[in-house]
Amino acid sequence: MRANGSEQIAGRMQRNLLGLNMRPCSTVMHLLLRCMRGCGRHSRSRMPRRLRQPMSYIKLIFKSLYFNSLTNSEVVLDCILEPVFWMVEVITRWFGMVFVFLVVALTSSVVFIAYVCLLPLVLQTYSLGWMMWHICYGNWILVMIVFHYYKATNTPPGYPPKMKNEVPFVSFCKKCVIPKPARSHHCGICKTCILKMDHHCPWLNNCVGHYNHRYFFSFCLFLTLGCMYCSISGRNLFIDAYNAIDEISQPPYTYKDRMFHKSVIYMWVLTSTVSVALGALTLWHAVLITRGETSIERHINNKEAKRLAKRGKVYRNPFSYGKLNNWKVFFGVEKRSHWLTRVLLPSGHTPYGDGLTWDIYPLKKDMLPV
Question: Considering 187, 190, 193, 201, which one is annotated as catalytic?
C-alpha cells in the first residue's frame, strides 16, 4: 500500500511539473498574438481616414489579380502595361497633325528634288522611250499617292449607330455604352467604336476602318512603289554624289553642285529606308487581306484557333470568302475593267456593304473567271 501511495504521489508531482512547463509556452503564444492584433489595430487607428479607403481599394485590386479564376499571364501583362498604352494614346492624339505634316513635308521634299534636280538630267541624257517612261510612271505614282493619302485622312472609317436599331450585334461596348456589330472595336484615341477597325494610324491622324481601309492600303502600296522607283533609278546618281563628297582632294565644286549632291544623297537614303520599312508593312497587310481579316482580328483568330485546336477542332474565319474573292471584296472589283478603273486608277467608290452586317452572299462564288 505504501509503495502504491508513493507511486501516486510521484505521478502527481510529475504532472504538476509538466503543467508548469506547458503553461508558460501557451501564455507566451497568447501574448504574442494579442500584441500582433494590437499592433494592427494601432496601425489602423494611426492611418488617416482619407487613406483608409484608397488603401482598402488598392488591396481589393491586388487581391482581384489572383482571386479571379479567369486571370492569366496576358491579363496581368495588360494591367502592367496599361499606363504605357495610355501614354501612347495621349501622345498619338496630341501629335496626330505633326505626323501628317511630316508625311506631307517629306513627300514634298522628294518630289521637289525629283522635278528640280533629276528631271533635267532625264531630259538631257535618256532616249525618248525612257524619257516617256520616267515621266508617265513618276507622275502616275505621284497622283495615286496624293489621292489615296487625301482620301485616307479625310474619309471617316465608319461608326456604329448610337440610336436604337435592329442591327444584330455581337457584344456591348462599355465605354461607348452602345451595341457593337461584328468586326467593330473601340478606339481609345478616337474615343469611339469603329466599323471593321484595323488600327489607328498616327500618320493619317485617323482610324483605319471599313470606309477608308482600301485608301490606306493603296497609299502604302503606291508609296512603296514610288520609293522603290526613286531608290533604284537614283542609285548611280547616289554613288557619284557620295564619292564626290567623300573625296579628299575635291575639285572646285560650286555651291549649286554641292547642294545637288547632298539632295541626291538625302533623297536616296530616305526613299530606300521608307521602301524597306513601309514595304514590310504593306506586305503584312496584303497577307491579312488575303486571309480576310484585319490586324485586330488576326490576334483574335489566333487565340480562337488555339482554343479550338485543344478540343480537336479547326477554326474557320467566317469573314473569309477565299483568297481571290477577299481581294475582290476589298477593292470592290465586280468585272475585269475594275482592275484598271478601281485599282490602278484613282477611284472614290464605296466598299461593299455598310460595315454592320457581313452576309455578302453574291460573293460566296467567284465573280470573275480565274
Answer: 201
